[in-house]
Design brief:
Layout lengths: L1 H7 L14 H21 L1 H32 L8 E5 L5 H12 L4 E7 L1 H11 L3 H4 L10 E6 L4 H9 L3 E5 L2 H43 L1 H9 L4 H33 L1 H10 L11 H28 L5
Antiparallel strand pairs: 1-3, 1-4, 2-3
C-alpha cells in the first residue's frame, strides 16, 4: 500500500533557473520603449502640442523673471562699492590740513580706510568721465575741493554725523542707504521668483502626471494583458516613464526657445539702456551650463511626474 502511494505521489517541481541578465535584451527593450513612446506622442500632435505649450510657458516664466532680476542686480551694482563716504572739504583747505584730518580719521576704530583725492585728481577724473573736457580748458583755476573717501567699519551712522559737523568739511555724501533698500527689494523679488518657480514646477509635474494618467486609462486593456502574462511593474511602467521623459525634454527646449524670442524682442531697448550707462552695464542671458541645467531639471520633472502617476495606478491595481 505504501509503495502504491509513493508511486502515485506527484514529483516535486524543481523551479527552472532564471534567465541570465542580458545587456542586449535590456538595451533593446529600453530603446523600443523610448521610440515607441515618441511615436505615440507624434500620433496625437494637437494634444501633445497643447501640453508642451502649457509646460513650456510654465517653465519659461520663472526663468525670465530670474533673468530680469539677475540683470537688475548687475545694473544696481554692489552695495559694498556704495558704502564709502565722500567728505568734500571746504574750498581753500591746504594739503597739510587735509592730510592731518585724514590721519585723525584713520586712527578711529570705525574707519577701515581713508583715501585722499586732490583737486587735480578730481579734475582729471571729471575730464575723463564727462563731455566737458574742452570747456574745462578755459578755466584759469581748479574749482574742485579736496575729497576724502572714507570706508567705514560697521554702522556708519555716527561717523557720518560727526563728519557733517566737522568744521573742515563742507559737504558729506553717503548714498549707500538707497542701494541697500534697493538690494532688499531685489532680494525679496528673487525669493518671490523662487517661490513662483516652485509653484510652476509643481504645476508642470501635475500636468505631466495627469497626461500620463489619461494615457494609462486609454491603454488599460493592453496593460491588463501584460499583467496577466506576468509582466513586472517596471515593464508596465517603462513606456510611461519615457513618455514623461519626452514631455519634460521637449518642454525644456520650448522654454529655452521662448526665452530666446523674448531676448530678441528686447534686444533694441536693452541696447539703448546700456548706451545710457556708457556701456558699463551689459545685459546677459542664460549660459550654456544654465541651459543644460534647465533641460536636466525639466526632464527630471517629466520623468518624476510619469513615475508618480504610473506607480500609483500600479500600486492600486489599476487598471486591471
Amino acid at each position: 500500500m505504501n509503495r502504491r502511494i509513493e508511486k502515485n505521489r506527484p514529483k516535486s517541481v524543481v523551479p527552472e533557473p532564471r534567465a541570465k541578465f542580458s545587456l542586449r535584451a535590456w538595451r533593446e527593450q529600453h530603446l523600443y520603449s523610448l521610440f515607441s513612446s515618441l511615436g505615440r506622442l507624434a500620433a496625437r500632435p494637437w494634444a501633445t502640442a497643447l501640453t508642451l505649450a502649457v509646460l513650456g510657458f510654465a517653465l519659461a516664466l520663472p526663468l525670465l523673471f530670474w533673468l530680469l532680476l539677475d540683470n537688475a542686480r548687475g545694473l544696481t551694482g554692489n552695495v559694498a562699492d556704495a558704502s564709502a563716504i565722500s567728505a568734500f572739504m571746504k574750498p581753500g583747505t591746504d594739503a597739510a590740513a587735509v592730510q592731518a584730518f585724514a590721519g585723525r580719521l584713520r586712527a578711529r576704530a570705525d574707519v577701515a580706510a581713508v583715501t585722499v583725492k586732490t583737486p587735480e585728481q578730481g579734475l582729471e577724473e571729471f575730464r575723463e568721465r564727462s563731455d566737458f573736457a574742452d570747456a574745462l580748458r578755459v578755466l584759469h583755476y581748479n574749482p574742485l575741493p579736496p575729497v576724502l573717501i572714507v570706508d567705514p567699519r560697521g554702522d556708519p551712522g555716527v561717523l557720518v554725523a560727526q563728519l557733517r559737523s566737522a568744521a573742515a568739511v563742507d559737504r558729506v555724501q553717503y548714498d549707500a542707504q538707497w542701494r541697500q533698500r534697493l538690494n532688499a527689494i531685489l532680494g525679496l523679488a528673487l525669493r518671490g521668483a523662487q517661490v513662483l518657480a516652485g509653484l510652476l514646477g509643481l504645476a508642470a509635474l501635475l500636468v505631466i502626471g495627469n497626461t500620463v494618467r489619461l494615457d494609462i486609462a486609454g491603454r488599460s486593456e493592453e496593460i491588463a494583458v501584460m499583467q496577466l502574462l506576468g509582466a513586472e511593474a517596471c515593464c508596465v511602467r517603462r513606456p510611461f516613464l519615457y513618455s514623461g521623459f519626452w514631455y519634460g525634454t521637449f518642454a525644456g527646449v520650448l522654454s529655452l526657445m521662448l526665452i530666446g524670442i523674448v531676448q530678441a524682442i528686447l534686444a533694441a531697448p536693452l541696447a539703448r539702456l546700456t548706451a545710457a550707462y556708457d556701456h558699463a552695464f551689459a545685459a546677459h542671458g542664460l549660459s550654456v551650463a544654465q541651459m543644460l541645467a534647465v533641460l536636466a531639471a525639466s526632464t527630471t520633472l517629466g520623468w518624476l511626474g510619469a513615475f508618480l502617476a504610473a506607480s500609483r495606478h500600479i500600486a492600486l491595481g489599476q487598471p486591471r
